[in-house]
Amino acid sequence: MEKVTAPVITGKKGKEKISMLTAYDFVTAGIVDDAAVDIALVGDSLGQIILGYSTTVPVTIEEMIHHAKAVVRAAKHALVVVDMPFLSYQVSVEEAKRNAGRMVKESGAEAVKLEGGVRMKKTIKAIVDMDVPVMGHIGLTPQSVYRMGGYKVQGKGPEARKLIEDAKAVEEAGAFSVVLECVPRQLAKEITELLSIPTIGIGAGPDCDGQVLVFHDVMGLSGSFRPKFVKASADLRKSMTDAIKTYIDEVKEGVFPDDEHSFH
Ligand code: KIV
């Protein structure tokens, strides 16, 4: 199977839907890659999913690089995109360039993703000019959770115009694709038709050029809270809990280890 690149992703627009899933470690990245997903995203959602923070805000560059390295080692086919965490690109364009460079150089990921539209236009352009492919991310941008006052659908009513401007800015800055998170379905359709780069939706309806979800949500590993836009394809939390209970019972009852699993 051929390695997916950023230009390959851009070229899929209008031809083939793009699949993207998060991956944070070697095992899950290997599973995602074997299944031939187009993009493995080392999302800063790892702050919540893997590290147990309540938001993505505390995630550091070092944590992102650490996890991205493991994903890169497993990804033979998928394009690996790594999220730039909060404070790694907001302070100045110079800092953003250095940190984006560090993230691809030290982790081996092939592109970065960062949040923001019009206000990030210069930053995206500067990183793209360094030959680092950038994926944009607009709509609900989780690093702005405190300003937004929670995780809410963005671009409703008069806000729609602003989101369209954000989408155009990301494209004009040279991004190879853009994530639309928690955006009304009709607005996501309009933006998708307007842009020449692919849109990748999460909570943005069926008319985007691609779809992204968090691996643990799709696998039913995330616990009881499930956002409206998540469709779990498995119930691994239950399967894993059952398997662990079986193991505990067998150990307690002296059924395992047995002769078959012993050395002679
Ligand atoms: O961090 C993340 O997982 C993301 C996706 C959900 C788009 O940014």
Amino-to-carboxy terminus distance: 44 Å
Low-confidence stretches: none
Q: Which sequence of strands runs across the widest sheet?
A: 1-2-3-4-5-6-7-8
Count every beta strand, where a strand is a DSSP E run of 2 or more residues.
Answer: 8
Shape: globular
Helical element count?
11
Largest sheet: 8 strands, parallel, barrel
Give the structure's gist in a few sentences.
The protein is an alpha/beta fold and 264 residues long. The protein is 41% helix and 14% strand. Helix 2 crosses helix 4, helix 4 runs parallel beside helix 5 and helix 5 packs across helix 6.
Question: How would you describe this protein?
Answer:
The chain has 264 residues and is α/β, with parallel strands linked by helices. Helix content is 41%, strand content 14%. It has eleven helices and eight strands. The chain has helices spanning 6-11, 26-34, 46-49, 61-74, 93-107, 121-129, 145-148, 159-172, 185-194, 215-218, 236-253, and strands at residues 18-22, 39-42, 79-83, 111-113, 134-139, 177-181, 199-202, 210-213. Strands 1-2-3-4-5-6-7-8 form an eight-stranded parallel beta barrel, surrounded by six helices. Helix 6 links the parallel strand 4 (111-113) and strand 5. The longest helix has 18 residues, at 236-253. The mean pLDDT is 97. 3-methyl-2-oxobutanoic acid is lined by residues 22, 41, 43-45, 83, 137, 179, 181, 202, 212, 214.
